[in-house]
Amino acid sequence: MPQITVTDEQGNFYFPTYPRRARGLVKKGRARFISANTICLNCPPQNQEEQQMTENTNTNSRTAPTAAEIFAELQQIRQDTQHLSLALEKLEKVPADNNADEKICQAKIDAIEEVVVQREETNRSLITLYEKLYDAIR
User: Fold this and answer.
1) By C-alpha distance, which of 81, 75, 87 is closest to 116?
2) DSSP labels, 58-77
């Protein structure tokens, strides 16, 4: 299987890679083809690690949310009832006549119910998280 030569902008050579991997790097914007059998990395591997470490440090240094931000998030959870509206719309479309297959109708109803239950469980988990965050800043 042919291999693709890998270099960086400073002319350093790295281990060769396979064509599929090379195309993936180019597609993601991490490299560019400089010939049919050679790619040039936009950012050498050491720099990528340093950049990721810097990004992680910046992410980890975020400040705790304020009480106002927590209450705003809770308000948003309370007002977000779109999932309930959509579930009710879907339930209204389930056939209620005798010609409909009862098992299929029940399966649809069960699936809609499960979506609503899971969404409400997610909301409860978010509320619990916000309670803990609020307790931590009080």
Assistant:
1) 87
2) HHHTPPPPPHHHHHHHHHHH
C-alpha closest to that of 132 among 90, 70, 43, 48: 70
Pairing of strands 38-41, 4-8: parallel
User: In this model, does residue 19 exceed pLDDT 90?
Assistant: yes
Other residues' Cβ atoms within 10 Å of the Cβ of residue 119: 17
| CB contact burial 6-34 (16+ within 10 A = b; e otherwise) | bbbeeeeeeeebeeeebeebbeeeebeee
For 118-127, the pLDDT digits (tens) are 888 888 888 9
Encoding tokens for residue 111? 């699936």
User: Quick one: tokens of 102?
Assistant: 């009862």
Least Cα distance to 39 among 22, 18, 21, 15 occurs for: 22
43: left (phi over 0), alpha (psi -120 to 50) or beta: beta
pLDDT (0 to 100) of residue 32 = 93
